[in-house]
Amino acid sequence: MLMQTHEARLTALREELKKRALDGFVIPISDEHMSEYVGEYAQRLGWLTGFGGSAGSAAVMADRAAIFVDGRYTVQVRDQVEERLFEYQSVPATSPVKWLAANARQGMKIGYDSWLHSRGWAKKAERMLADVGAELVPVDGNPLDAVWQDRPEPSAAVATIQTDDLAGRSSADKRGEVAQWLKDKKLDAAVISALDSVAWLLNMRGTDVSHTPVALSYVVAHEDGTADLFIAGEKVTPELRQHLGNAVTIRERDEFEGALKELSGKRVAVDPEYGVAAISLALEQGGATPVSERDPTILAKAVKNPVEVQGHRDAQAIDGVAVCKYLHWLGQEAPKGTIDELTAAAKLLEFRQQYGDLRDTSFDTISAAAGHAALPHYKVDDDTNIPIPPSSIYLCDSGGQYPAGTTDITRTIWVGPGEPTAEMKDRFTRVLKGHIAIAMATFPAGTNGGQLDSLARQFLWQAGTDYAHGTGHGVGSFLSVHEGPQRIAKTSGAQSGTMEALLPGMILSNEPGYYKAGEFGIRIENLVLTEVRDIAGADAGEWYGFENLTWVPIDRTLIEPALLSNEERDWLDAYHAEMRALLAPQMNGEVLAWLEEQTRPL
């Protein structure tokens, strides 16, 4: 009989821990590749607790348990997780390890799955628990999996080929670049464990993870340009085998751990962020030396080649038409008060499916009405779904996965009738001014995203307000919508990517926002491409700026024109004029008339 309640599941896990002589256990939302989005088979935290967010963790002991989330999920965790079973804990004020160290006693053994945590996390946790006389113990098989009776199997879908005409470079060329990197670093091999890195290196895609077109697999790349691919045999087609060629040896995915132990005497690069602790442990057990080095595909993947850049432009033009048709429909229907958040999200998906080779959404659509728009990472479901009220603000953050590129766009619109309040227009215009400041930025080579971030915030700061998320993240080419290493964000704290210098070819989001709790939220997001700028009379060295990639009107109803400078007005009018020229030939009738009205000069 299956365990239906979270209390029964927690009890079963505690019994399993007792059998294994463990006094505690840590459950993250993670998989063996440290992925942002994980397959159903790896949704252990959700099964145990009921929490449906994309980031969080839990710690379980014999007499108490806690769930850990950041500020994005403060409301959601209370709706979905029973406090009598799990104490609510806030990150980064605390963490599972801090909580365990505070509650553990001398001699206790705390278990962790070394396939779900980084080596750095494990070493830090070992030290903190040792300080209180407890021990961190890697488990042999996840105890939660032992009690999860109806746990889904990993996806068996076949892997697919990203052809060179879309990838812009052959896999052999990419593997050659990695081989040269290994030689330069005096290393013998590199473990490539991040799923999007494997996909990029081998020009391979898949459908194993929602929103990210990747196949569950690992690669060990060697300094002679050859590679071993570890992937379930049923996922390999004759076409993929031919595509990979003789230089790539295909082995079963479950042989990976044993193969690491075959690298005796070798110096092997393991990424400190994406390489789980089990990889380094297996290398050491086999007599190899794991060397902490950033995955050599990370930067190469982030700097898009000309073919990938053109693919992004093409995908954005298709996506722009779909989103425009959606906003036109929404403008007609939402003021009637008959559309809810789920219906709106479903309609947007329908338009995307009509106007392009859509393979998936690039993340769960944030379809947020009224006070829900004030939750930057809101996820609508049957329990949270509400009607979109007339005379209110509606925010939609969404994206698509197309073979040519990955899109991500946020638009905030006024749902009539009536007019937005002066406060709404003020805040929207300040967000728009910040968006334009990033879009118009010119900066010298070597500038990082942390140095640009305040350009987006300055106008909100002038009004004594701010937003709690980053301003921009990297975006992949038919890969992860949140791709590193570059970011635009505040540099305080340990924010990975803010110190990464921006390079031509990097694609980022530009998404400042404003959120008034319980009332409304505003975000304006386009994707931009870092490019070289020629500046007459400039000093020596290269200068960069951004090319806009996203083409959907910005709602003029919410703009307070008096707050815009002449330069900002000119930017907005030029943006809308270029959009009209690009999209109008693909439209007709009412939608074309809507586009012309929305893009007329301010």
From TrEMBL:
Residues 542-602 form the Peptidase M24 C-terminal domain. Gene3D superfamilies: Creatinase/methionine aminopeptidase superfamily, Creatinase/prolidase N-terminal domain. Residues 9-141 form the Creatinase N-terminal domain. InterPro entries: Creatin/AminoP/Spt16_N (IPR029149), Creatinase/aminopeptidase-like (IPR036005), Creatinase_N (IPR000587), Pept_M24 (IPR000994), Pept_M24B (IPR033740), Peptidase_M24_C (IPR032416), X-Pro_aminopeptidase_P (IPR050422). One of its GO terms (cellular component) is cytoplasm. Pfam families: Creatinase_N, Creatinase_N_2, Peptidase_M24, Peptidase_M24_C. Keywords: Hydrolase, Metal-binding. Residues 312-529 form the Peptidase M24 domain. One of its GO terms (molecular function) is metal ion binding. SUPFAM superfamilies: Creatinase/aminopeptidase, Creatinase/prolidase N-terminal domain. It comes from the Bacteria. Belongs to the peptidase M24B family. PANTHER family: XAA-PRO AMINOPEPTIDASE 1. This is M24 family metallopeptidase. It comes from Parerythrobacter jejuensis.
